[in-house]
Amino acid sequence: QVQLVESGGGLVQAGGSLSLSCVASRRTLSRHVMGWLRQALGKEREFVAAISRYGYSSYYADSVKGRFTIFRDNAKNTVNLQMNSLKPEDTAVYYCAADPTYRSTTYYSKMPTEYDYWGQGTQVTVSS
């Protein structure tokens, strides 16, 4: 079982930046592919970014590619999402998630259904 706690959300103007942080309870975070997903009001939860167990690989949704960066520090049990050039359509609740399956070191999980451990979410609102 992995408990995840996100922080760093808030209100920002379009074009601005926010940095989200996720702290995991498990000291062996390197066992898990980690991801960030989001859910806008009235929409389904969607994939944003994922990073492999040791950070060798990462993957981004087309909508955030070039603007968002995911990175992790297994020694500190943290996974972060740096969001730049934010747009109003980025407004959503952002969730940190962990894939429970022990994956290869270059694998990244792109489907929401691959994640079983979720944080409580943090609201990001981008005003136009």
Global outline? globular
- Which spans of ≥5 residues are poorly predicted at pLDDT below 50? none
What is the rounded distance between the termini? 39 Å
Number of strands: 11
Count of runs of 4 or more consecutive helical residues: 0
Structural class: mainly beta
Helix content: under 10%
How do the helices and strands line up, and which of them pair or pack?
Layout: E1 4-7, E2 10-13, E3 18-24, E4 34-39, E5 46-51, E6 58-60, E7 68-73, E8 78-83, E9 92-98, E10 117-118, E11 122-127
Structural account:
There is one protein chain. This protein is mainly beta. It contains no helices and eleven strands. Strands 2, 4, 5, 6, 9, 10 and 11 form a seven-stranded mixed sheet that branches. Strands 1-3-8-7 form a four-stranded antiparallel sheet, with no helix packed on it. A hairpin with a 4-residue loop joins strand 7 (68-73) and strand 8.
